[in-house]
Design a protein that fits this description.
The chain has 235 residues and is an alpha+beta fold. Helix content is 34%, strand content 16%. It binds adenosine monophosphate. Adenosine monophosphate (AMP) binds next to β2 and α4.
Length: 235
């Protein structure tokens, strides 16, 4: 039996379908490494500023004495993380104009020289945020972080347990227990060294499901470098 040649239009159609399948495959793999969970990272400004590098208050003035957001970071269960996932999805201040005043309060820049926050937010969006675009767009990313900060209510949780930013030293275990009581899950704590060389409470890593709504158990803890007793400086 002899095979009839396929009609040209059918061949063209097949080529188009193959091309589309190929494109989806390729695009899928560039955005690909779908992350597993978020680290929601907050920092104590008193500890950020009490280092040899110092800090600069934002142009809008000294932030409130409260934990500030550092970032919302997509992560893999093995502890590695994607970064700079989509250079085309750049930070656009106009898309978050309704959030700016809350970002200034809750996600303040402390870098020198003083800024308005845009440089910090741009860095966080481009390095980390673009890797969560399967879940959150630019507006959703910043709104989610602000919502998580409210929900975590870290400073109040610590104060309720008698742990205050008063330059006292507190047991790491009691800090961890207090936050676990509020969040419902263990958290990661990172310390830095103050100007006098003391280990001080710097950043708190809370694990969040990939939709950005629920606190979850951490599949992997960040390395903390904390002494058994850490100082909680004022701000
Ligand atoms: P990342 O690359 O997301 O791990 O963030 C690290 C960068 O964020 C470093 O360049 C830090 O100096 C910067 N950073 C951390 N906290 C702040 C802050 N409160 N204000 C400005 N920059 C910050």
């Amino acid at each position: 039996m002899t095979m009839k040649p396929l009609p040209l239009r059918f061949v063209l159609f097949l080529l188009l379908v193959c091309n589309a399948v190929f494109q989806i495959g390729v695009l899928g793999s560039t955005n690909s490494e779908e992350f597993d969970f978020f680290f929601f990272v907050q920092q104590w400004p008193g500890s950020y500023c009490d280092t040899k590098n110092h800090c600069c208050y934002p142009k809008s003035g000294k932030p409130a004495a409260d934990f500030g957001i550092h970032g919302l970071w997509p992560n893999y269960n093995d502890g590695s993380y994607p970064s700079n996932c989509n250079p085309e999805n750049s930070f656009d201040k106009s898309e978050i104009s309704d959030l700016l005043s809350n970002l200034e309060k809750g996600w303040p820049t402390l870098a020198c020289p003083s800024g308005d926050g845009v440089k910090f937010w741009t860095h966080e969006w481009e390095k980390h945020g673009t890797c969560s675009e399967s879940q959150l767009d630019l507006h959703g990313y910043f709104e989610t972080a602000l919502t998580l900060k409210k929900k975590a209510n870290l400073l109040q949780t610590l104060k309720d347990a008698g742990i205050k930013p008063d330059y006292e030293f507190y047991d790491m275990e009691s800090i961890k227990e207090a936050i676990k009581g509020g969040i419902g899950h263990e958290v990661g704590i990172q310390c830095n060294h103050g100007t006098s060389g003391n280990s001080q409470l710097f950043q708190v890593f809370i694990c969040v499901d990939k939709s950005g709504t629920e606190f979850v158990e951490c599949p992997k803890m960040p390395r903390g470098r904390c002494a058994s007793k850490v100082q909680f400086p004022s701000f």
